[in-house]
Amino acid sequence: YFVKQAAEMSRRPPVREKLNGEGTVGEGNGDGVFTRMSSTSKTGPTNDHNHDSFNMSSRRLKSHDSDGFNDSNSSLEPKLGKKGFLRTSKRGELGGELNWLGNVRNKMSAFLISMKNMNNERRKARRRQLIYLLFALFTIFISFVHMKNHKVLRRQSKFLERLSRIGLRRRGSLGSKSKRKGIVYWPGGTWSRDPARARQVDWWEQNPMAPLGLSCDASDTSSSSSKNPSHPIKSFEEYKYRGYKIPPPVFNGRTPVPPGPGKERVQVALVVPFVQFQLNKVTNVLSHYWSKNPPCLPGSKKISVDLIFFTENSLSKGNKEFILDVYRSLGNDKVGCFFTATPTFLSLTDEDLHMSHLEGAAFDFYMLFELLESKYKTFMLVEPDAVPIRENFLPAIVAESELLRCDSDGLWQIGSLPLSKKVKSADLQKRLDYHINGNSFYILGCPDFEEYKCRVQTYYQPKKKDCALMAGCTTHNGFEEGYDHALYRYRVQTDNYEYSRLVMHHFHYSTFMHNLGEAVYDPVEVVENFSSTYFVHSKSIYLTDAANILKEVTTGILKVEPCEHENWIVPIVLKAYRYLRTGEYTKIDAARYICQETLRSGKGENSVCNMYRNEAGNFAEDDWKDRMEGKTYLWTMDFHGGPASCDSPIIREAGGVLHAEVDGICDYYGLCRDRLKVIRADHWKEFDPTEQQIVDFKAAYKDDPEFKRVDAFLCHHPVANCELFLPFNRSIIVHATTRLEFGRHDAGIDWRLNSGYDRNTGQEKWKKWVKTLQNLATDKRNVIAANNAYDQQYIKYFTGISDVLLLPSWCGIGIGVTICEDGWKSNLQKNWMPTRAEVMIVPYRSNLDRTRYQTNVRRPIDHPILKELRAVSRDLRGTTEVKLISELYDDANPLRMLDHPAVVIIPYQVSTMNLIELYRLNIPMFCPSLSLLKRWCREHDLLWEVHYGWPEMLVENQENIPDPNGSLNMDKNSKEWEQMFDYWIPLSDFYQMKGIIYFDSWEDFFKKYHDALDSDRLVNTSHEMRQANKELEGSLLRQWKNILAKVRQQ
Fold first, then answer.
1. pLDDT value, residue 823
2. Residues 6+ apart with CB under 8 A from 338
């Protein structure tokens, strides 16, 4: 309403007044000009209600006959012009008498007064309009607040319903719709004696649906039997805590559950809390950190510690088995000392409680006390980023836990302060942050500690978005999110001083667990400086070296985080990250580069840069002969960034460095060309170098210092470009990712025919390339390999080379993530955790829209194969939807598939980088069986791109193997075609990889998919793929170490 009124006023023209014939004020025409009117017009202002503006009648000035002026004939009748100036009907005529001028003067005075009144009216109108707008804004604000509160209340209500369904809303501890139960009223005291307590009581009374703290007992205190027997409150004078008169708690603390009759509690529960998407972190901790620093030594006796894996939602059987497999792989000598031989899996519910990260962490923490206290005396919370740095840590855990007791001098919590060296991070110093991190030791079964936690949860109410479902979840202040901050901040608030001073000594700072936040650390250095430290908590263990170094350098020099920078910094950061990632840059190299580029950009010199100057006093890079000391340096020039990006991490882990100059498909992988000479590529336009370019390339790099440092050249896509590197007398690694003739004799590719390809020239280049490859194979310094079984056999078939290595592309880290995107810093891949129901058809590029030489033949969705899919009956399909990636997403990022329960492969090639990436992500895969794929190829020529051309066979075929390419118009019903298919297509990646589920028809797919959904088969399939990937990683690492040792210059 208010907005409408303001808009109505803004559409009206400003009120303009004029002087009428009698010297009174009338209405103007809206543009400041007072017009003549007929003398018969005697009406006053009228209001036309059919218009938004006023339509006022105007009057002309009245004539004065006594002064000799004729009203109808005079040509000197005075008129008011624009802006109120006098004008005459005839320019230059003066006429008139003095008394007439005096009359005009009076009228002018009246006019000026009217103008003043007009301005006043304008101001009033604007004032009214502003008031309307302010009322409108106020109304919107109030509506927003009510809407926000309503949303919070709705979340809380649904949360309470979910808790009721899973049996956790017991004893009325989580509120009631009508009245808040359990408030401990203070009958003997007055509210004014403790305003802070009064405010808390008021809040909880006014919010009866707000979930109460899990550490509180909300039984109705009107009945004495329901009161906490340790602190019965009858009057203010009678309530004491340890002999001191202090304000009583608003709610009583929860009464701990005692152990069963005659049962002795285990000393420590070592609890590893996590959510399912952190599964890879848990297994990484076990396989890397526990393997290196085991819990106990060989021959150790049983120790009173149990290992518990704790999740809010129940783990599937397959996920439990996966964790147990990794745990058992450590061996009994390393983990046989736990009190219970097999780890316990503890969870709360199968239902998703729809809590935020903060709410979920707090919920799990407060629930742990009730879940553990009947069986354990204490527990140690160890999140997946808290890892051991010393072996035999179980005895040390028991010794530390024995300091926890429930008597007057015992400890309730033992943990670490924030010990990051960067005290300005998160305003640690400014906020005087001495909180004990949540990765700590805690006492169990202690009523006094339950009361303390209840007081904390009562004080920090569940009233904001991120913590609307859980009390004691946060302090609601910046940098203080989390239950551990709430536990600490409560006892340093002035409101709680009387109580806190009596319990402060129960909280103990220790270096047993070293809390470093995100800081990078050296375990040896930590132990040297803190002899009692056994664990370190730092998120840096899951960050790549490149991300850690980049952050340290950019924050030190540029004073900004890597992804929080101005535009001029972007290319600098991108290049530094690229070379840190490949291993070409050390920390010093990256710092020098950033300092140098900062100076070049005219941003001035940073004092921090002085420590990175070289011996010459500048920031120039070291000579090539002194770079990457002790590492094998590989150099590649490709037209696809995928192979180099996939190989680079495993090469670096094996002790090498790969520099890639890539053009074509490069931006996605962050490996575009940087210092490539001669071969400009220009998005594949110089895909096949001319003889002159080969000569020029040799001349350009003949004395290049970088090429003198190179140990070996690596060729992927196409491998024929290895011919460029023949003159430099270095080892050559041929690592084929597709057909051997690609880039030389490939008449089966339509775009090659339009880029200068000549069939006769291609035939000669093919013969030359095969001969070159045969010669390379005779030199032991070189390596001939393929990343898939099909191309491995293909090279053997066309060259006669017997020793062709099967060297799969790894693609196991950094999949689908570029710098500054979510997860770019992580050294672990994300887990497959389906949140959507659609099954996706992969890969993104399907060729379903085209034939070999014709594009845009149809929409992919109109392909006959997909029509077969849609023809399956609704009864068989059920609610399962099978979609092309392009129907839901705009790109081929494989990480999107992690949200889906499975993918279906409709192949266009025998091996693609996208398929390898999806397999490394452990996403369950369905694939047409050989018989179904054979039918699709016969009917629809599905795999036409497998054949890049029809090159000549130049060696003798001693084994009578079918030609892998056949001929262009080969009859697909012939015996020759069937033999070719039966021999070669089973060598495709999707028939060589473990764990893929095959179907014989779309009907068979739906049956097998629904069966897998109803069982644990999808999860088991994912774990089978994970295990296969893990074994492959170890095998690849050994292969690359051998290759690097072979090609390195002596």
1. 80
2. 295, 302, 303, 305, 306, 307, 394
